[in-house]
């Protein structure tokens, strides 16, 4: 009987450890990573840089010094042009973030895939 309890305990312990590794991998900082952003209109790259700054290849971004990001666990928030457009997303896998955005012109969905 003790063997059965030991096997059950070991199985629960191993399953629990595996899922915590998956969660911690998703919680890793995006700092320094580059992603391909895409929505129904545009595709461009975003790099999450030091001090909450964003580097982007967005074709209409004429003022890159006022673009910022922050992360809380698996949640990401970034803004362009001093908050003119705001983006909220969630890290779904190590290589995929999905979310929604809004500006005075409307709301839309987007996704990003890891480049590096």
From TrEMBL:
<protein>
    <recommendedName>
        <fullName>Lipoprotein</fullName>
    </recommendedName>
</protein>
């Amino acid at each position: 009987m003790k063997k059965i309890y030991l096997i059950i305990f070991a199985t629960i312990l191993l399953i629990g450890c595996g899922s915590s590794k998956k969660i911690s991998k998703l919680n890793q900082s995006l700092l320094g990573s580059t992603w391909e952003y895409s929505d129904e209109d545009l595709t461009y790259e975003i790099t999450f840089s030091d001090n909450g700054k964003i580097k982007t290849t967005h074709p209409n971004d004429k003022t890159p010094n006022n673009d910022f990001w922050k992360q809380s666990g698996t949640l990401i928030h970034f803004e362009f042009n001093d908050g003119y457009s705001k983006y909220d997303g969630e890290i779904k896998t190590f290589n995929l973030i999905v979310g929604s955005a809004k500006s005075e012109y409307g709301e839309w969905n987007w996704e990003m895939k890891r480049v590096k």
